[in-house]
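Deliverable D2.4 — example input (structure tokens):
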């Protein structure tokens, strides 16, 4: 089996549930040592079981990203343990509820911003020196379509994600002359808590499972990835792939 991530250390921030929990075992299967960061120790232990079943070993970090000082200590502590970081995947996010802009509670909005945006900025600040110590550091940040196409009732979430995108793309521009590659990924609809918070009445089978976005996310974490400063949409890439396959089929039929 090919193990393109053999020996590589990848931090998954938001590893307890949803997309991060789906990506972590695949990273292990490909040879990586995942560092699982999440709020809930029990959830991390369940993901750790799946990492072990995939043949890997993980490090567990039960940490609330609202605790900024704890986030700031991550860089030094991961440096002491590993000396470098080969990958950072940021999937942590809150949605909680959709609400008209005129009704948004400022304390709730501040918490949303703290997790969805400020935590990413703080992670970049503390982990950038470690990512630069890797021969092929990769940083991937999950975003959401509303960042660029705000809709009624999605204003607060959209604002946090638009700010995240601006930060990440500026960071990408700053490190473009280094081996570090930095990208955004929009996983599209996935049956997770984030989706349930937005569409509480929707049956779970209406959206694909989080595993759907795993290949696209993992591709951006590989040392061979050359994309940089991109905003990768899983849905658009799947549609492009379908179009390619259809046109190749038509070409083959015409021959
Ligand atoms: N699901 C969708 O339909 C969809 C669509 C478009 C974009 N996205 C994006 O995809 C990304 C992943 O979303 P998801 O669907 O996987 O959501 P999810 O299932 O709700 O998972 C979010 C993760 O973030 C963690 N988290 C939240 N607050 C935290 C905090 N204060 N400290 C540490 N960890 C915290 C959660 O940990 P706990 O469980 O312990 O709270 C959970 O593991 C997000 O950026 C989202 O915007 C999702």
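Example output (designed residues):
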């Amino acid at each position: 089996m090919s193990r393109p991530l053999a020996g590589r250390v990848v931090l998954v921030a938001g590893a307890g549930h949803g997309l991060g929990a789906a990506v972590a075992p695949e990273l292990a299967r490909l040879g990586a040592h995942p560092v699982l960061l999440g709020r809930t120790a029990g959830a991390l232990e369940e993901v750790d079981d799946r990492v072990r079943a995939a043949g890997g070993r993980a490090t567990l970090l039960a940490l609330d990203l609202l605790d900024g000082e704890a986030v700031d200590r991550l860089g030094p502590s991961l440096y002491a343990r590993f000396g470098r970081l080969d990958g950072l995947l940021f999937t942590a996010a809150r949605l909680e509820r959709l609400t008209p802009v005129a009704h948004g509670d400022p304390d709730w909005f501040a918490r949303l911003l703290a997790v969805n945006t400020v935590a990413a900025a703080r992670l970049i600040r503390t982990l950038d020196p470690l990512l630069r110590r890797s021969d092929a550091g990769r940083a991937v940040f999950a975003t959401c379509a509303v960042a660029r196409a705000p809709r009624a009732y999605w204003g607060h979430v959209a604002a946090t994600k638009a700010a995240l995108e601006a930060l990440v793309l500026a960071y990408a521009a700053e490190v473009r002359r280094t081996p570090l590659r930095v990208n955004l990924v929009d996983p599209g609809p996935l049956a997770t808590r984030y989706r349930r918070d937005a569409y509480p009445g929707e049956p779970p089978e209406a959206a694909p499972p989080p595993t759907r976005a795993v290949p696209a996310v993992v591709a951006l974490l590989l040392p061979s990835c050359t994309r940089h400063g991109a905003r990768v949409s899983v849905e658009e890439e799947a549609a492009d792939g379908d179009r390619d396959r259809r046109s190749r089929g038509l070409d083959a039929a015409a021959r």
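The chain has a mean pLDDT of 95.
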